[in-house]
Write a structure and sequence with these properties.
- With about 210 residues, this protein is mainly α.
- About 70% of the residues lie in helices and about 0% in strands.
- It is built from 9 helices and no strands.
- Helix 5 runs parallel beside helix 7.
- It is globular, with a radius of gyration of 19 Å.
- The N and C termini lie far apart (about 60 Å).
Length: about 210
């Protein structure tokens, strides 16, 4: 269900697609219905597989944000829609050479898959996605994704009931080896999860 094609707003398809992709970098995704409409139109502009993956990932971020317009509905819960979009992004990347850039993009997508599956309380699927992400980051110990992987790993351990392992992973994310400092938003997420885990630990110790 795509309204007026975006190419009618620009001199050619490449110009229109470049404008859409540039807009994706200007801020967080908006409501899923609006984002889906933009992505649907952009997919008609013959993007490369890598650009196609960017479009699907942006739509996944919109669904995962939980921000929906009043009256907006979908056939699936938002987290499920986000998983579907990430799957389409990974499928698009499977059509390009597996160079280093592609592997790092895949690492980010698999980490997002893991967090969504954790939100849905699916530890097995989350662990598989985390392993796939870690494999792709094995040669990049100082990559910004590393603290985010630790956040997801900590949440996985906590979901599995391994409190001590979860706390350790979160602490490693806050203080990684090699001098890597997490980005502010990643540090905040790690601190929030660590605070909750430590609160759960103190309750457990008091109860015992």
């Amino acid at each position: 269900d795509c309204p007026v094609p975006l190419q009618s707003l620009a001199s050619d398809e490449a110009t229109a697609l470049a404008a859409v992709l540039n807009s994706l970098d200007q801020g967080p995704a908006g409501p899923p219905a609006d984002t889906r409409r933009i992505v649907c139109q952009a997919l008609q502009l013959k993007p490369s597989p890598r650009d196609e993956a960017r479009l699907h990932e942006h739509l996944a971020d919109a669904w995962a944000s939980g921000v929906q317009a009043l009256g907006e509905t979908s056939g699936h819960p938002p987290s499920e829609e986000a998983l579907l979009s990430l799957g389409r992004a990974l499928e698009a990347l499977s059509r390009v050479p597996h160079d280093e850039e592609t592997l790092l993009i895949e690492a980010r997508l698999y980490r997002k898959l893991a967090l969504l599956n954790l939100h849905l309380r699916r530890p097995t699927e989350a662990q598989e996605a985390l392993q796939a992400a870690a494999q792709r980051l094995a040669d990049h110990p100082l990559h910004p994704e590393q603290p985010r992987l630790k956040l997801a790993l900590g949440k996985l351990h906590l979901l599995q009931g391994h409190l001590t392992k979860g706390i350790r992973a979160l602490e490693e994310g806050l203080h990684p080896q090699g001098g890597l400092k997490p980005l502010p938003q990643d540090q905040a997420a790690l601190l929030l999860s660590l605070g909750r885990a430590l609160g759960g630990q103190s309750q457990f110790l008091r109860a015992s």
